[in-house]
Design goal:
The complex is a heterodimer of chains A (431) and B (372). Chain A has 431 residues and is an alpha+beta fold. Chain A contains 16 helices and 15 strands. In chain A, a hairpin with a 2-residue loop joins β8 and β9. The termini of chain A are far apart. Chain B has 3 domains: 115 residues, DNA Polymerase III, subunit A, domain 2 (DNA Polymerase III, Chain A, domain 2), CATH 3.10.150; 126 residues, DNA Polymerase III, Chain A, domain 2, CATH 3.10.150.10; 108 residues, DNA Polymerase III, subunit A, domain 2 (DNA Polymerase III, Chain A, domain 2, Roll). Chain B is elongated. The chains are: A alpha+beta (431), B alpha+beta (372). At the A-B interface, β14 and α15 of A face loops of B.
Chain lengths: 431, 372
């Protein structure tokens, strides 16, 4: 009797062997019966859970370290300039207290010897594609959250792969390590919320499981800011209601939470019980494309702002063209020296993906807001997206030059596709 | 102040005034209408600081005076009173109330002092002339659909009224465009209008003006300066600032060399466009026109929802042509045609198309094609 209860599914993350009825040793650290390794994973629900979250470890920094081994043991920060913020810090830098989204000057105070690199988004996007291809081999139901993390739903794939989801996920991280030289952490559970929480539990190279039976115990004393989407503002309003941990939430009726916090309240009610009904959706449509830049120095110089605006417009346009989409709404975003954010938007008659139209429209918005400078950040974006077959279908009576500029832009695109982005550029890009 | 007035007269005056009042107001007094009673008439004055309307109505004034009261509330009350009722308005300046009595209904409304009401400065007008309501109605009705709503090109947010040279001499001309279509409407130059500065009459003013123009027999007194325009009937005076901007040189937009000529019954054409565009759910519905010898095929192809096609008998004798347009724009310009056939003049599928009524050069429309 005793002996039967004590068996448990297990898998070895080193040799990838797995056993549905592994028997833990009476004493001492469990070792893999096949390879003797210590990275043995066991959990009563290990082979019955199928919703996973995969999160690469310090993704941008890891890619840089992989591409330049001399950086391997140095603290590395990826981010923009002296005025920017930290995008990613490698684990060496994290030991010194550097965190994502920290202002760069503060990061450099904590870690003056850090190597700072500007992000190479194209490289990361290419690596992300390779990882995505590996995930595609596991399941069609993948929901990417960003370049370096994604939800995967492996329900019903066990017969196909001849192995339970937990094993396939271990193989995925192993393959990432072997073929791409990158590590990732896995969270495995019965819904998206818990899977995401789990993947963060023992980073880097982590693999955590939150089973159904342990959900209530696990959450009880955790702070509610664990929930993705609860930022400082939401935290504050929860604080005022005396809600700090999940156990505080359990005391509330659903109706009261909804009355106080709206739809977020309903969601909190369910999350407190470990329930999350959102499905992993493979085709979460892109809602907007945008790009922004923080300047080295605050500026209200129209010539400099104009140069930045053109560059941002070109980047947004390039992404729209690559995705085959166009947008009807053009947004201009400015951050003033006092960090106040101004956004201005305008609806076009015809959706566009052309840098020229995007730039001219945003420029008109900038002209109206220019007096409120100096600014520290400028961005522009496209939203209300449609397929590009509907884009730029109509010219402007009052701007007869628009058509020849559009032809020039298409020609520029063709040249860049063949010879690279730097092959041809407008003079104002250099401002 | 105390006066009594017939409900219908009161309703007419108040409704004109309240339509000028902006719904969302940050300055409380701008939500009010200024009521001034003197002699045998009452004046109702409302403004949004850009437009001012003054409406006079005959009344039996017992005690002269003035006050201001919420325009929309007063309008709603008067609208709901029974037809034919006699309405008595009494201002109690000590209590700051205006009572409205009709039959057994009694209302007491909060007022704001008349001194706070901004009255638009009177200015000197460069030119004053008189034009029949029907002429102005045609000028503005046929052009206003093309007015832009784009705020970044604010100088297109109105109808450009000016004096222009046409074949037969000088004309009074209204032009509006949003960059996708353009309307150019001419009328005989009224006596005394020749020195008029060109002004851009804002969209809202055009809408308010329309209410003055219903009566065919009426003569409208028009006064124009560089910054203001005034339209007046004996009962109503509408004063408006004009848009401070330069209207673009529209003459280069109007194609002169388009040779492919299509003549079609405008009503049949509009109905067919409306029918085929039903299948498309996109906001900018594109209609394709295929022109061959004396036939026109209209078609819409919306991959997600369906396709439609309709053939029309037309007069067309030039090379065949395929060209696309936004269905809404086609419908709007076709609906401007009310007497003769619509004549379209095309160049290529990428160039602006011109439309007019028969050979009438006094109303010309230009529309930009769309790639289909």
């Amino acid at each position: 009797m005793d002996a039967q209860i004590s068996t448990c599914p297990a898998l070895c993350r080193d040799c990838l062997s797995w056993w549905p009825d592994w028997r833990p040793p009476k004493a001492g650290r469990p070792r893999c019966p096949s390879c003797g390794g210590l990275r043995l994973l066991s959990h009563p629900e290990l082979f019955s859970l199928s919703i996973a979250h995969m999160d690469c470890d310090a993704f941008y920094a890891s890619v840089e370290k992989r591409d330049d081994p001399s950086l391997a043991d140095k603290p590395l920060i990826i981010g923009g300039g002296k005025r920017g913020v930290v995008s990613t810090a490698c684990y060496v830098a994290r030991i010194r207290g550097v965190r994502s989204a920290m202002p760069m000057f503060k990061a450099l105070e904590l870690c003056p010897d850090a190597v700072v690199l500007r992000p190479r988004m194209e490289v990361y996007a290419a690596v992300s594609k390779q990882i995505r291809a590996m995930m595609d081999d596991l399941t069609p139901v993948i929901e990417p959250l960003s370049l370096d993390e994604a939800f995967l739903d492996l329900s019903g794939t066990e017969r196909l792969h001849g192995a339970p989801p937990a094993v396939m996920l271990a193989r995925l991280t192993r393959r990432m390590k072997d073929e791409l030289g990158l590590t990732g952490s896995i969270g495995l559970s019965h819904n998206k919320f818990l899977a995401k929480v789990a993947s963060d539990l023992d980073k880097p190279r982590g693999y955590s499981i939150i089973g159904r039976a342990q959900t209530a115990d696990f959450l009880r004393d955790k702070p509610v800011r664990l929930i993705w989407g609860i930022g400082p503002a939401a935290q504050e309003s929860l604080d005022r209601a005396g809600i700090r941990s999940f156990s505080d939430l359990l005391r509330w009726e659903k109706a009261d939470l909804t009355a106080r916090f709206g739809s977020m309240g309903t969601r909190l009610y369910h999350l407190a019980r470990g329930e999350d009904f959102r499905s992993v959706s493979a085709n979460e449509p892109v809602r907007s494309i945008s790009n922004e830049t923080t300047f080295f120095e605050d500026t209200s110089d129209p010539v400099i702002l104009d140069g930045h605006l053109w560059r941002m417009a070109e980047k947004v346009s390039a992404r729209a063209k690559a995705k085959g989409i166009a947008g009807r709404v053009v947004t201009l975003k400015l951050k003033r020296a006092d960090h106040k954010i101004l956004t201005r938007r305008i609806s076009l008659r015809t959706p566009t993906q052309m840098a020229d139209t995007l730039y001219r429209t945003a420029r008109a918005l900038l002209d109206q807001a220019e007096k409120q400078g100096p600014f520290r950040l400028l961005g522009c974006g496209l939203s209300d997206l449609v397929p590009d077959a509907q884009a730029d279908t109509s010219g402007d009576l009052l701007d007869p030059g628009a058509e020849s500029r559009a032809r020039a832009e298409r020609a520029t695109d063709a040249i860049r596709n063949r010879f690279g982005t730097e092959a041809i550029m407008k003079g104002r890009t250099l401002r | 102040m105390k006066f009594s007035i017939e409900r219908a007269a009161l309703l007419k005056a108040v409704s004109q005034a309240q339509s000028v009042v902006e719904r969302r107001n940050t300055i409380p007094i701008l939500a009010n209408v200024l009521i001034e009673a003197e002699g045998a008439q009452v004046q109702f004055r409302a403004t949004d600081l850009d437009i001012e309307v003054v409406d006079k109505a005959p009344a039996m004034v017992e005690r002269a005076g003035a006050t201001t009261v919420a325009a929309t509330t007063l309008h709603e009350i008067v609208r709901k009173l029974p037809d034919g009722a006699m309405v008595v308005l009494t201002a109690d300046s000590a209590a700051g109330r205006l009572t409205v009595e009709a039959g057994r209904s009694n209302f007491s409304l909060a007022t704001l002092p008349r001194e706070d009401f901004p009255v638009m400065a009177t200015s000197d007008y460069d030119v004053s002339f008189s034009a029949p309501a029907a002429v102005l109605r045609r000028l503005f009705d046929k052009s206003k659909f093309a007015v832009s709503t784009e705020e970044t090109r604010y100088y297109l947010n109105g109808v450009y009224m000016h004096v222009a040279d046409a074949d037969g001499g000088k004309v009074l001309r209204c032009v509006a465009t949003d960059g996708h279509r353009l309307a150019r409407i001419d009328a005989d130059l009224p006596a005394g209008a020749s020195g008029m500065p060109g002004v851009i009459v804002p969209r809202k003013t055009v809408g308010e003006l329309r209410k003055l123009l219903d009566d065919d027999e009426a003569e409208i007194a028009v006064s124009v300066s560089e910054t203001k325009v005034r339209f007046a009937t004996p009962a109503i005076t509408l004063t408006s600032k004009v848009i401070d901007g330069t209207f673009p040189d529209y003459s280069r937009v109007i194609p002169m060399g388009n040779t492919r000529r299509l003549e079609v019954d405008a009503t049949e054409f509009a109905k067919a466009v409306d029918r085929v565009s039903t299948v498309s759910s996109e906001r900018s519905r594109a209609v394709k026109l295929q022109l061959g010898e004396d036939r026109l095929v209209l078609s819409v192809n919306a991959p997600d929802s369906g396709a439609a096609e309709e053939e029309l008998a037309v007069a067309y004798g030039d090379e065949s042509l395929e060209i696309g347009f936004n269905a809404k724009y086609l419908l709007e310009i076709a609906s401007q045609v009310d007497r003769e056939n619509a004549v379209f003049l095309f160049n290529s599928s990428g160039d602006p198309t011109l439309m007019r009524e028969g050979n009438d050069q006094s109303a010309v429309y230009v529309v930009m094609p769309m790639r289909v």
